[in-house]
Specification:
- By secondary structure, this protein is α/β, with parallel strands linked by helices.
- It has one domain: 3-Layer(aba) Sandwich (Leucine Aminopeptidase, subunit E, domain 1), CATH 3.40.220.10.
- 36% of the residues lie in helices and 20% in strands.
- It has 5 helices and 7 strands, in the order βββααββαβαβα.
- The protein has a 7-stranded mixed sheet with strand order 1-2-7-6-3-5-4, with helices on both faces.
- Strand 1 (2-5) and strand 2 (8-14) form a beta hairpin.
- Helix 3 packs across helix 4 and helix 4 crosses helix 5 (162-175).
- It is globular.
- The structure holds adenosine-5'-diphosphate.
- Residues 16-18, 29, 38-41, 43, 85, 120-127, 158, 160, 164 line the site of adenosine-5'-diphosphate.
């Protein structure tokens, strides 16, 4: 699914966040220590190679809602923005902290003049955020931010599996018919 909103191309696909060739920046669903792990962080660190962990070390720890930027190393992307999502029901208010992730990631991208960025569904894996709720917060925040974007012209959501992609398509269609 693809939508053009105020000159920004918003796209939803299913795939692997660590193999997005055509975007300048990918977002990591990071942990506080900015280490490799399971899920998105594992895929991104495996793709980037050990130099990513070295670059991350002095930037850690980060707090829920925060975002930091590094190079992409061996990934096909110039940059990685690492966001720490809230652990659902533990890091409160979870909704605001999740919105902060998307807002802070987009603001960092703007500061670097990034034109295209791909997000995973932050917090919906081991952090336990229900995906329908998370997708609503993600798209609400992005739709709010779109009028402020100058350099970012493409925002892609990369979801693991067609069910996750369908949830996101449904949410976006209801927020922006
Ligand atoms: P968090 O700790 O923020 O919950 P996870 O990495 O555990 O992050 O999961 C976030 C979401 O990303 C989940 O919906 C999970 O299914 C999905 N996911 C896991 N691996 C990948 C991948 N390689 N590419 C895209 N999405 C992924």
């Amino acid at each position: 699914m693809e939508k053009e909103i105020s000159g920004v191309n918003l796209e939803i696909i299913s795939g692997d966040i660590a193999s997005q060739e055509e975007v300048q920046c990918v977002v990591n669903a990071a942990n506080a220590q900015l280490l490799s792990g399971g899920g998105v962080a594992g895929a991104i660190h495996r793709g980037a190679g050990p130099d990513l962990a070295r670059e991350c070390r002095p930037l850690a720890p980060i707090s829920p809602g925060q975002a930091v930027i590094t190079g992409g190393h061996n990934l096909p992307n110039e940059y990685v923005i690492h966001c720490l999502g809230p652990i659902y029901g533990v890091d409160n208010p979870s909704e605001e902290l999740l919105a902060d992730c998307y807002r802070n990631a987009l603001q960092l991208a703007e500061q670097k003049g990034i034109t295209s960025i791909a997000f995973p569904s932050i917090s919906t894996g081991v952090f336990g955020y229900p995906m329908a709720d998370a997708s609503e917060t993600a798209f609400r925040t992005i739709l709010e931010e779109i009028p402020n974007l100058r350099s970012v012209r493409k925002i892609r959501f990369v979801l693991f599996g067609s069910d996750a992609a369908e949830v996101h398509e449904h949410t976006l269609a209801s927020l922006h018919p």
